[in-house]
């Protein structure tokens, strides 16, 4: 009997694990005889992935920060290339993590394995010459956002816009009251969600800043309360240490970021994937970000896009405030956030338009594209 379809996937962080698990579910629905190998997190492993090593070993942020892990990452990638060439998957899918996955895809494609990259790197914003490597490394690019697909079409890269899975899973109108009941929050409370990031480095740079901003906001809006979802036990411990003896009406949550977003009135948030989630929950937001000073100086020279946050990139205008690096001070964050507690309609109306445009049943679309590339659809 012929062996089942063999799909290799590599995800490098929690957001990729979520996308990968959704794609695996859709692939199993469309082609039940399929097996999965590669690298992934707990969600992908729950769907049947045999992970060669823990996904966390790939999770690193920043240009400077990666240097301390560079030798390990290169060695792991070299071994993984050999392992996957020997395994001969029908299709390889690199999920985000472009610095790791694009070279992996190039080597596998040169060995005759069909390759897909799921989630476009920010090639349209900086280091645009990477599109040449992408064209050489990928049989197909799957993009979450329409503006990315237009970029690849302009550069002769096979592409398919699939939408974003969260746009389907998050309702067009979230139930604020139900979320508050789950979290034990009063219906009439003024609630701000603080999301300083899911990685240790992000929380180290933004955690105290966000807590300081919360203290300033209390002076402007005395009745305000705060919720802060912790991505892991380690992040909770880190945030508890940063909280120290502060007198803040703050509820630390274990996970439950979606409940926090559904329950809140506004969000102070780190630039990244979570801004899309806040957008889909239609919650007004202020975006902040800080990186290592050297990383910032390098990026400032390389980035050509006028915006860094996904809501603004998708709106193609300044829809949400972005306070970056030295501009991100506690007073500035509080002063920018306070008016959104009174009226955030301009943002939320724009968010609704974007949400509807992204509802494409992404996982099913991505699975269909993968199976067509494998000659099975």
From TrEMBL:
Pathway membership? Bacterial outer membrane biogenesis; LPS lipid A biosynthesis
If you read the UniProt record, what top EC class would you report for this enzyme, in one word? transferase
Q: What name has this protein been given in UniProt?
A: Lipid-A-disaccharide synthase
Q: Give the GO terms filed under biological process for this record.
A: lipid A biosynthetic process
| GO MF annotation list | lipid-A-disaccharide synthase activity; phospholipid binding
Q: Which keywords belong to this entry?
A: Glycosyltransferase, Lipid A biosynthesis, Lipid biosynthesis, Lipid metabolism, Transferase
Tell me which species this is from: Aquipseudomonas campi
The family annotation for this protein states: Belongs to the LpxB family.
Function of this protein? Answer: Condensation of UDP-2,3-diacylglucosamine and 2,3-diacylglucosamine-1-phosphate to form lipid A disaccharide, a precursor of lipid A, a phosphorylated glycolipid that anchors the lipopolysaccharide to the outer membrane of the cell.
Answer yes or no on keyword Methyltransferase.
no
Spell out the SUPFAM superfamilies in the cross-references. Answer: UDP-Glycosyltransferase/glycogen phosphorylase
| UniProt-listed Enzyme Commission number(s) | 2.4.1.182
- InterPro entries annotated for this entry? Glyco_trans_19 (IPR003835)
Write out the catalysed reaction.
Answer: a lipid X + a UDP-2-N,3-O-bis[(3R)-3-hydroxyacyl]-alpha-D-glucosamine = a lipid A disaccharide + UDP + H(+)
């Amino acid at each position: 009997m012929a062996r089942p379809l063999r799909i290799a996937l590599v995800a490098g962080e929690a957001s990729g694990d979520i996308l990968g698990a959704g794609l695996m579910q859709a692939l199993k629905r469309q082609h039940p005889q399929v097996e999965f190998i590669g690298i992934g997190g707990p969600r992908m492993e729950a769907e049947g992935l045999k992970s060669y090593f823990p996904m966390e070993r790939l999770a690193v942020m920043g240009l400077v920060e990666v240097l301390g892990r560079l030798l390990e990452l290169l060695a792991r990638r070299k071994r993984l290339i050999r392992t996957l060439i020997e395994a001969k998957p029908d299709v390889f899918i690199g999920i985000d993590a472009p610095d790791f996955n694009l070279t992996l895809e190039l080597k596998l494609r040169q060995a005759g394995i069909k390759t897909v990259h799921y989630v476009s790197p920010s090639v349209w914003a900086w280091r645009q010459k990477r599109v040449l490597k992408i064209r050489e490394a990928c049989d197909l690019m799957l993009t979450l956002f329409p503006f990315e697909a237009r970029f690849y079409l302009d550069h002769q890269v096979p592409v398919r816009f699939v939408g974003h899975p969260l746009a389907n899973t998050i309702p067009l109108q979230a139930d604020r009251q139900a979320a508050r009941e789950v979290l034990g929050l009063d219906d009439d409370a003024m609630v701000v969600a603080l999301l300083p990031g899911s990685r240790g480095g992000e929380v180290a740079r933004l955690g105290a800043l966000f807590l300081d901003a919360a203290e300033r906001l209390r002076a402007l809006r005395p009745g305000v309360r705060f919720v802060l979802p912790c991505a892991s036990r380690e992040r909770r411990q880190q945030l508890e240490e940063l909280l120290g003896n502060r007198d803040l009406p703050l509820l630390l949550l274990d996970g439950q970021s979606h409940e926090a977003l559904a329950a809140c009135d506004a969000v102070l948030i780190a630039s990244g994937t979570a801004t899309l989630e806040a957008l889909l929950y239609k919650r007004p937001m202020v975006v902040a970000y800080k990186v290592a000073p050297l990383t910032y100086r390098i990026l400032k020279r390389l980035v050509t896009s006028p915006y860094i946050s996904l809501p603004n990139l998708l709106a193609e205008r300044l829809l949400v405030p972005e306070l970056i690096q030295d501009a991100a001070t506690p007073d500035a964050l509080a002063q920018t956030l306070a008016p959104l507690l009174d009226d955030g309609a301009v943002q939320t109306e724009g968010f609704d338009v974007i949400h509807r445009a992204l509802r494409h049943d992404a996982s099913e679309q991505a699975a269909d594209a993968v199976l067509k590339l494998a000659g099975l659809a």
